[in-house]
Design brief:
Keywords: Cell membrane, Membrane, Transmembrane, Transmembrane helix. The chain has 114 residues and is mostly helical. The chain is 84% helix and 0% strand. It has one domain.
């Protein structure tokens, strides 16, 4: 994996958890708006909107650089629109990055992969 691909995947991983948190907070704010006088939906909506746009931009960049299959790209996009999907995307991307590091170290040491 080259540096630009690793960077694209890292950016997507780093924005996925905050995007998921903002989505959950937006849902809580929506419920509070309808049940109390508290209305933070405009603020949380803007925060979530910015994070979602960043997620989609980073997702497209990662898809292009990592040469994901259509199924993998679709999975990461679907995870972005589920309330807790960003947490699953972050964990999966972290595991993918760790596997790439292990494979890179094995290649450097001359260990044949199974």
């Amino acid at each position: 994996m080259d540096l630009k691909t690793a960077t694209a995947l890292r950016r997507l991983r780093l924005v996925s958890a905050p995007e998921a948190v903002s989505f959950l907070l937006l849902l809580v704010c929506s419920v509070l708006k309808r049940t109390t006088d508290f209305n933070a939906v405009p603020v949380m909506g803007a925060v979530h909107g910015v994070l979602f746009i960043l997620y989609v931009l980073f997702w497209a960049d990662a898809w292009n650089r990592a040469k994901w299959s259509l199924g993998t790209a679709a999975l990461y996009f679907v995870l972005s629109v589920l309330p807790t999907g960003g947490f699953f995307a972050e964990r999966r991307l972290r595991r993918e990055a760790e596997d790439a590091v292990i494979a890179s170290r094995a290649r450097k040491e001359g260990v044949a992969s199974a």
